[in-house]
Specification:
9 strands; alpha/beta; globular; Rossmann fold; about 220 residues; seven-stranded mixed sheet
């Protein structure tokens, strides 16, 4: 014990210092694209290495998407940050997160809102995300397995909705119906060769659409 403890402590501190340096580098890169200081602080607060496969943890703080199970990906940090920024969260909202994936996006949203309801259609991903969220100390995400295009009617209306998969057919009707008055919804829209982030704002009975960054997401699958 006496011979092994100092070495283990030094290695642990080295890993923490490396992660801190990597996180600082990522934040410096994101600051060129994201103005919302709360979003940058949320990215800094979430340990992205908890949400990537063990074999890829040396790339966890790179500004790139990475593969996870079930043919899905953990999104590029700049895209996560931009989607969160477009939702204009203040900390009081209930947010619906469609497409939990690794759980990373939900964890960042949890730093920015009061409550996050997240839906994942792949049970194996949901279980892994649940473990990762717990390991990261995230307690305000409610994770469900199901069809995210149907939303979560029993928890609606939502002040904000985040969709982490690309729709080729517009915003699912159920999500439109579950968006609260004044609410914001962000979704990648378009085919594989031409997706953009679309922000929808609920203004009275209408949804006003704004188009933003070019992105590339896996397809949105559901009823």
């Amino acid at each position: 014990m006496l011979g092994g403890a100092p070495g283990g402590y030094v290695e642990s501190m080295r890993r923490r210092a490396t992660r801190s340096a990597d996180a600082d580098g990522l934040l410096a890169e994101l600051a060129a694209h994201v103005r919302d200081e709360r979003v940058l602080a949320a990215i800094a607060a979430v340990p992205r290495d908890r949400f990537v496969p063990a074999s890829l943890r040396d790339r966890a703080w790179a500004n790139t998407s990475l593969p996870i199970a079930a043919g899905q990906t953990i999104s590029q940090p700049v895209v996560v940050a931009r989607m969160c920024e477009l939702l204009e969260l203040t900390g009081t909202e209930t947010v619906l997160d469609v497409g939990t994936g690794s759980g990373y996006h939900a964890a960042v949203l949890a730093q920015l809102a009061a409550r996050v309801v997240s839906i994942e259609r792949h049970e194996e991903l949901a279980e892994a995300a649940r473990a990762s969220l717990a390991a990261a100390g995230v307690r305000t995400v409610e994770l469900h397995v199901g069809d995210g295009t149907l939303g979560r009617p029993e928890a609606a209306p939502f002040d904000a909705i985040n969709v982490a998969a690309a729709s080729r057919h517009g915003i699912p009707v159920a999500l439109e119906e579950q968006l609260a008055p004044g609410g914001r919804l962000v979704i990648p829209a378009g085919g594989p060769g031409g997706q953009r982030l679309v922000l929808a704002r609920r203004v009275g009975a209408e949804l006003l659409l704004e188009h933003y960054d070019r992105v590339r997401f896996v397809p949105l699958v559901g009823g």
